[in-house]
Amino acid sequence: MSKIALITGATSGIGEACAHIFAQQGYQLVLLARREDRLEKIAHHLTAKYGIEIKQIVADVRHNENLSAALEALPEEWKKVDVLVNNAGLSQGLDPIDKGNINDWDTMIDTNVKGLLYVTKIVSNWMIPHQSGHIVNIGSIAGKEVYPNGNVYCASKHAVDALSKGMRIDLLPHGIKVTEINPGMVETEFSVVRFKGDEDRAKKVYENLEPLIADDIADAIWYVVSRPKHVNINDMLIMPTVQATATIINRTP
Ligand code: NDP
Ligand code: 8X3
């Protein structure tokens, strides 16, 4: 059986780009997200193009009971996951702390922190008997810096930063690699989601600059995953050339 990669948030952006690159490399895929129609379309396309096998899991990483039932229902041979890409995540709103929307805070913390933990608990327990595996957590520049109005999103990605370090320590005796990939601005559906469907506001984020694209990050993920067994890349911070920090950006006039 080929190697298996489980990718969360595979219906868009970075997760979808990862699905493509792993499929191209001959991996079998477990693709997880909430939007069934998109999962179906992506899985159908990749199966036809690369002749690989794909399992689709329609699940919300925030709901541990449903999530674990859906993951545990995978056939036993599919639980020998070689690579887990903990990518599902989002931002909601961009407001000062005193004006923040509590539902948005809950959504970000439940998805970016608790969801990542729930998936990791299950999949790391599948990896341990094999004493191998690679967990790639998608953090952010927002997990390294805090920017105005980024408050809770930044906190959730700082948590991913701490959890990546913690996982690396705890999973060391089991031969499981842990890598954190931290992108700067990547043009995906991220800003449309952050601004709740306001496409014009989302477009302005990337106005007069060349952002990263999802494939740039998938490429880096493939690079870290394809290193020799004795090499682990702990942490990678990847920015568009025009971005020095979260807020210092060289836009063309
Ligand atoms: P997209 O909005 O394009 O993709 C997000 C993916 O996450 C979608 O597939 C979505 O699928 C999935 N997702 C969201 N919430 C849940 C949930 N509760 N359960 C399961 N899946 C979920 O954004 P990106 O590709 O940009 O984001 C991917 C990751 O990269 C996120 O963790 C984000 O924080 C991080 N990141 C993004 C940056 C950027 O500039 N774009 C920069 C730094 C980090 P569905 O809606 O179908 O469930
Ligand atoms: C997404 C990029 O700059 O909005 O993590 O934090 S940013």
From TrEMBL:
UniProt keyword annotations, A-Z: Oxidoreductase
GO molecular function, one term: oxidoreductase activity, acting on the CH-OH group of donors, NAD or NADP as acceptor
InterPro entries: NAD(P)-bd_dom_sf, Sc_DH/Rdtase_CS, SDR_fam
Gene3D superfamilies xref list: NAD(P)-binding Rossmann-like Domain (3.40.50.720)
Entry similarity comment: Belongs to the short-chain dehydrogenases/reductases (SDR) family.
Matching PANTHER family: ALCOHOL DEHYDROGENASE
Name the UniProt record assigns to this protein: SDR family oxidoreductase
